[in-house]
Amino acid sequence: MQYNNRVQPDYKAARNCYRINRRKRIFLVVATMLITLLFSGLLSGCETLDSLIMSQDQPLSERTIIAGLKEALERGATLAVEVVSREDGFFGNMEIRIHLPEELEDVDQTLRCIGLGSKMDEFEESMNRAAEQAAALAIDIFIDAIKQMTIGDAGAILQGADDAATRYLENNYRDRLYHSFYPVVEKAMQEVGLARIYKFILDKYNSIPLIEKKEYNLDEYITNRALDGLFLMVSREEKEIRTNPVARVTELLKKVFG
Q: Which of residues 30 and 252 earns the better pLDDT score?
C-alpha cells in the first residue's frame, strides 16, 4: 500500500492569514486617509490663522477710517437727539439746561421784585421746552452735515481724544448747523408759547420808568445753547463707542475702533 506523502494545505490557517493581511491593508488605508485629512486640516487652519494675522496687521485705509468716524458720529447724533428731545431732555439735565442769558439777569431780578417770579420761572422752562422740541427735528440736519463732511487727517482723529470726531464736526460745521437749526428753534419758540412770554416780560420791564430799555435776540441764544447741549451729548456717545466694545454695534465700528 502506497501513501501520499504530500502535505495537505492548511486552508484554515490560510484563511486566517488572509484575513489578517486584509485587516492590515484596510488599517493602512484608513490611517493614510486620516493622516492626509489631519495634515490638510492643519494646513488649512494655519492658512486661516495666517490670513487672520495678516488682516489684523494691515493698517486701516483712510476711506475705512473716515467711514467709521462718520458712522460713529451718526450713531452718536441719533442717540443724543433721542435723549435731549424727550421731555426734560434739556430742562431736567443740569449739564445742558438752558438758563437765562446774562444779558437778562437784571430783567429777572427786577421782575421778581415786583411779583413776577413765577413768570420768569415759566420763561426759563419754556426756553428748554423749545430746545427739546427743536432737537427732535435736528437729527436730519446733523446726519446731512455728517454725510457731507470731509475729513482731512482721519488717522489723527481716530488716535485723538475720546471726542475728537465730535470736536472736528463742531469746529468745521457748526456755522452750517446753526443756520439750518435756527428756523427750527424759531418755530419751536412759537409753538411752546415762548415768544409770547418773552414779549410779555420785555414789555413789563421796559414799561418801568427811568430804566434802560432791553432788546435781546433770544432765538439766537437758544439756538446756540441747544447746539452746545447736542454737541456735548454726541461727544458722550462717541466716547462710549471708543471705550466700550458693547457700544460698537456694527462690524464697521468694531473694525475701526476695536
A: 252
